[in-house]
Known about the structure:
Layout: E1 24-25, H1 28-37, E2 40-47, E3 50-57, E4 59-61, E5 64-69, H2 74-79, E6 84-97, E7 105-116, E8 118-119, H3 123-137, H4 150-154, E9 157-162, E10 166-171, E11 189-192, H5 214-217
Antiparallel strand pairs: 1-10, 2-3, 2-6, 4-5, 5-9, 6-7, 6-11, 7-10, 8-9
Amino acid sequence: MSEINQEQLTPTQRSQIKRVPQRGNYEREVIYQILDEGLICHVGFAVDSQPYVIPTAYGRVADQLYIHGSPASRMLRSLQTGIEVCLTVTLLDGLVLARSAFHHSMNYRSVVIFGTATIVKDAEEKLEALRAFTEHVIPKRWTEVRPPNHQELQGTLVLSLPLTEASAKVRTGPPLDDEADYTLPVWAGVVPLKLVAGEAIADARVPSTINTPIEVKNYTRLNSKVLK
């Protein structure tokens, strides 16, 4: 397994990209960028031979990915026992329309992470993780809102997953048709897709004297956060 200070992760038996390996990427910065742009991860784990895949929010601080929730959560209760977990994040960038049905595809960026999660017990790290969750959604939001109080901190379980066994997979570009199909009278190309924010809607109880933060007005997932 790779060291956390390496710029590129060493593929393991689990993280090695086997299907279309040329799309695989093990650069830590590429993995970070995908994680920082995404909003939702899917956490896969098994309990008593029953598989589960749960969508949840996450936050990243350097080489640690954090997930959180209620201590009563089955997912968090299961993960804190040290079982193996597989976590994925996917960004959809476009629909790839080929001249044949067989070669239709999608442009995407994805990350798969393997490992075991541990409970964050240190109070300072736990607070930093909660800050990461908030900042992951909206940059600078943590400094504008009320921080968690003691009761809220006690009622929140935070787990940490190290980014040491992970890989990215990326597809870009036009469709790749069979050479004979390029003469077919069929439109082919890419329909770009991106997450676009609508105009922010203020809560009815926000005083008119409070302006909408610039980070909310100009909200975008691109370069939304960079935590080293």
